[in-house]
Amino acid sequence: MAQIDRNLSTDVAKMVGSDPELQAIAEAIATDARANYAGHGDAAAFVHVEEETYKGVREPRVVFDHPVASFLEFGHMAVNPKTSEPTGRWVPGIHGLQNAARQHGSGRQT
């Protein structure tokens, strides 16, 4: 009977995570996401690449940490600035990070 090392997937992930090509793709995604957010105030300044480590595996991660990142990315209900009441109008999301990742092969391919 064949045996597989139970740490095999972690060992492979460590090899891939340290690949400079993965870092280059993360930087390209971040650059495209910044371009997608360029016309939306200071949002582009909140897109950056940071390193994440989990169970010894280091990987680059593209982060959008604007205070209202989820509203910008996915959309939100408009609010009257004078009364702070919802207007009932939906403001579509920009999907800047999602679209940038898809341009570089991430997500479901159809």
| Uncertain spans | none
Rg on CA atoms, Å: 19 Å
Biggest pleated-sheet summary: 2 strands, antiparallel
* Structural shape: elongated
| Order of helix and strand elements from N to C terminus | HHEEHEEH
Treating each run of at least 4 consecutive H or I residues as one helix, how many helices? 4
Strand order of the largest sheet: 1-2
Assembly type of the shown chains? single chain
**Content of β-strand:** 25-35%
Class derived from helix and strand content: alpha+beta
Mean pLDDT: 89
- Percent of residues in helices comes to 25-40%
CA-CA gap between termini:
39 Å
Strand tally is 4
How many separate structural domains?
1
Structural account:
The protein has 110 residues and is α+β, with helices and mostly antiparallel strands. The chain has one domain (8-103). Helices cover 37% and strands 25% of the residues. The chain has four helices and four strands, in the order ααββαββα. It has helices at residues 8-17, 20-36, 69-74, 96-103; strands spanning 47-54, 57-64, 75-79, 86-92. The strands form two sheets. A two-stranded antiparallel ribbon has the order 1-2. A two-stranded antiparallel ribbon has the order 3-4. Helix 2 (20-36) crosses helix 4. The mean pLDDT is 89.
Entry keywords:
about 110 residues, alpha+beta, two-stranded antiparallel ribbon, 4 helices, 4 strands, elongated
